[in-house]
């Protein structure tokens, strides 16, 4: 990166490809068959060994969490995207009667429909219902992202007209999505929430969170088990699996994602902090394949100084003291109640963490004009 | 040269939501590689937001390329020489495509 004219410098290119990438063998590292995919830093694998490696990594991560009770109700967060499609597939296999070490929990599925937020996107509800209810036969809970909001607090209008930046928009949607998932889990008496977050996405999110003052929470946000909610524990069985490995697994098993668009689609690599850090992580990963795991290990080591009380927006433990976290502005307080608490008309005080406090600054609360 | 191109994971959004296209590349004196195919795609298929698909002379990092279901990293990447009826798949692993 610090070389001048490195693009034109053939010698440098040769050196770089020789040392960094190495001539990759076309034989599988495990069995010597022809390889079809390169995983980890530079390991070629054949289809059979790759699938074994992938399923083993998923199952061992899941058993490491060691948290599922026999018959426990577990809610799967399904977005229709590639990660959660793979997750659903693996869990359905693990729950099936033919499974070698059968998973012992009871699965339900939640789908948060965000299609009302973007124009040009058709809702995939019917396809989701067909997949989950008809084919897999799991209880399915579909909730719209603007569920329970009356006309005065239209979520799309809030995001498009009263939220300053795409970063703030993405972060509000992320927090509200999680809030809705927690609500469904609690209502359906599910004590675990499984998400499809993979390590490439989490690495980008760690950097993006740090840039937004959420450093105190990054270890929690990417942990295998996340206990920010006393009633529902988040479990992330893909935290050691890369987005490339998921894409490859889906291709080999003909697993189709149903929804690839989201609020940031077509916005470009520099449109938000997350888009930037995601581009950065993927860029680095191409040159230095250990980037993602390094970011991960660093975040695990971060010291955190947090309190037992929780943030009303992101549900994470508060990282500032009670006076600093209190929202004094009445309109903002009302906004938080409307979007993030189960009692919209409550006058209870609202406390938010440092990052969410900054986030709220980019949102114009509705000044009632009627 | 006849090829099948597939776009998935959101990459299809940059190609009019078409997930599958068959194309015929003009006969050149030199052989076609992924590198020259990308230039052809940029000029012939990719009408808007090229920066969401192409970076430099390659695809944007985060877009996985498979040639006949094999990782292009195993096949010389950009320098892979295309063969008649190859299937080239571009999968975006980026958020929101
Ligand atoms: Zn093998
Ligand atoms: Zn917060």
Automatic annotation (TrEMBL), chain A:
Pathways involved: tRNA modification; 5-methoxycarbonylmethyl-2-thiouridine-tRNA biosynthesis
tRNA(Ile)-lysidine/2-thiocytidine synthase N-terminal domain mapped to chain residues: 74-256
Principal localisation: cytoplasm
Molecular function terms, GO-annotated: nucleotidyltransferase activity; sulfurtransferase activity; tRNA binding
One Gene Ontology term from the biological process aspect of the record: tRNA wobble position uridine thiolation
Keywords assigned by UniProt, alphabetized: Cytoplasm, tRNA processing
GO cellular component, one term: cytosol
Domain of life: Eukaryota
TM segment ranges: none
Keyword Nucleotide-binding in record: no
Pfam families documented for this protein: ATP_bind_3, CTU2
InterPro entries: CTU2, Rossmann-like_a/b/a_fold, TilS/TtcA_N
Compartments, as annotated in UniProt: Cytoplasm
Family of the protein in this entry: Belongs to the CTU2/NCS2 family.
Role: Plays a central role in 2-thiolation of mcm(5)S(2)U at tRNA wobble positions of tRNA(Lys), tRNA(Glu) and tRNA(Gln). May act by forming a heterodimer with NCS6/CTU1 that ligates sulfur from thiocarboxylated URM1 onto the uridine of tRNAs at wobble position.
Protein name: Cytoplasmic tRNA 2-thiolation protein 2
Source organism of this protein record: Adineta steineri
Automatic annotation (TrEMBL), chain B:
Subcellular location per the Swiss-Prot or TrEMBL entry: Cytoplasm
Pfam families: Urm1
Signal peptide residues on this chain, from the entry's feature table: none
Modification after translation, per record: C-terminal thiocarboxylation occurs in 2 steps, it is first acyl-adenylated (-COAMP) via the hesA/moeB/thiF part of the MOCS3/UBA4 homolog, then thiocarboxylated (-COSH) via the rhodanese domain of the MOCS3/UBA4 homolog.
Any one annotated GO CC term: cytosol
InterPro entries associated with the record: Beta-grasp_dom_sf, Mopterin_synth/thiamin_S_b, Urm1
Organism superkingdom: Eukaryota
Alphabetized UniProt keyword annotations: Cytoplasm, Isopeptide bond, tRNA processing, Ubl conjugation pathway
1-thioglycine PTM sites in chain numbering: 97
Single GO BP term: protein urmylation
Pathway: tRNA modification; 5-methoxycarbonylmethyl-2-thiouridine-tRNA biosynthesis
CDD domains xrefs: Ubl_Urm1
Cross-link annotation Glycyl lysine isopeptide (Gly-Lys) (interchain with K-? in acceptor proteins), location: 97
UniProt similarity note: Belongs to the URM1 family.
HAMAP family xref list: Urm1
Functional description taken from the UniProt entry: Acts as a sulfur carrier required for 2-thiolation of mcm(5)S(2)U at tRNA wobble positions of cytosolic tRNA(Lys), tRNA(Glu) and tRNA(Gln). Serves as sulfur donor in tRNA 2-thiolation reaction by being thiocarboxylated (-COSH) at its C-terminus by the MOCS3/UBA4 homolog. The sulfur is then transferred to tRNA to form 2-thiolation of mcm(5)S(2)U. Also acts as a ubiquitin-like protein (UBL) that is covalently conjugated via an isopeptide bond to lysine residues of target proteins.
Protein name: Ubiquitin-related modifier 1 homolog
UniProt organism field: Adineta steineri
Lineage: Eukaryota, Metazoa, Spiralia, Gnathifera, Rotifera
């Amino acid at each position: 990166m610090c070389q001048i004219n490195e693009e034109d410098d053939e010698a440098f290119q040769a050196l770089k490809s020789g040392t960094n990438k190495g001539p990759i063998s076309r034989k599988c590292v495990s069995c010597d068959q022809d390889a079809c995919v390169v995983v980890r830093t530079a390991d070629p694998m054949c289809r059979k060994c790759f699938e074994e490696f992938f399923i083993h990594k998923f199952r061992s991560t899941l058993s490491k969490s060691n948290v599922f009770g026999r018959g426990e109700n577990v809610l799967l967060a399904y977005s229709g995207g590639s990660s959660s499609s793979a997750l659903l597939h693996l869990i359905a296999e693990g729950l099936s009667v033919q499974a070698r070490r059968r998973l012992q929990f009871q699965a339900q599925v939640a789908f948060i429909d965000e299609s009302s937020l973007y124009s040009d996107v058709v809702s995939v509800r019917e396809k989701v219902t067909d997949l989950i209810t008809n084919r897999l036969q799991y209880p399915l809970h579909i909730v719209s992202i603007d569920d329970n909001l009356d006309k005065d607090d239209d979520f799309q209008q809030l995001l498009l007209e009263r939220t300053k930046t795409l970063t703030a928009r993405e972060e509000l949607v992320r927090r509200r999505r999680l809030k809705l998932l927690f609500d469904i889990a609690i209502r359906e008496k599910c004590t675990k929430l499984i998400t499809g977050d993979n390590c490439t996405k989490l690495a980008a999110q760690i950097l993006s969170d740090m840039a937004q003052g959420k450093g105190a929470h990054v270890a929690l946000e990417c942990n295998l088990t996340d206990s920010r909610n006393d009633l529902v524990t988040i479990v992330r069985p893909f935290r050691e699996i890369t987005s490339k490995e998921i894409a490859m697994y889906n291709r080999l098993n003909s697993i189709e994602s149903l929804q690839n668009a989201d609020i940031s689609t077509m916005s470009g690599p520099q449109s938000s902090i997350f888009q930037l850090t995601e581009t950065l992580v993927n860029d680095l990963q191409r040159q230095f394949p250990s980037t993602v795991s390094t970011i991960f290990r660093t975040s695990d080591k971060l010291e955190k100084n947090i309190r037992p009380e929780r943030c009303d927006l992101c549900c994470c433990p508060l990282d500032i003291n009670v006076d600093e976290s209190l929202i004094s502005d009445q309109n903002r307080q009302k906004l938080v109640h409307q979007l993030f608490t189960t009692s919209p008309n409550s006058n209870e005080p609202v406390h938010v963490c440092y990052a969410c406090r900054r986030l709220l600054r980019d949102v114009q609360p509705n000044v009632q004009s009627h | 040269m006849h090829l099948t191109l597939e776009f998935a994971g959101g990459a299809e959004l940059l190609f009019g939501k078409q997930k599958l296209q068959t194309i015929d590349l003009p006969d050149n004196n030199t052989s076609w590689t992924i590198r020259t195919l990308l230039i052809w795609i940029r000029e012939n298929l990719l009408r808007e937001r090229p920066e969401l698909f192409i970076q430099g002379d390659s695809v944007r990092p985060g877009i996985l390329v498979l040639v006949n279901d094999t990782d292009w990293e195993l096949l010389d990447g950009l320098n892979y020489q295309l063969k008649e009826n190859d299937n080239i798949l571009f999968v975006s692993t980026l958020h929101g495509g």
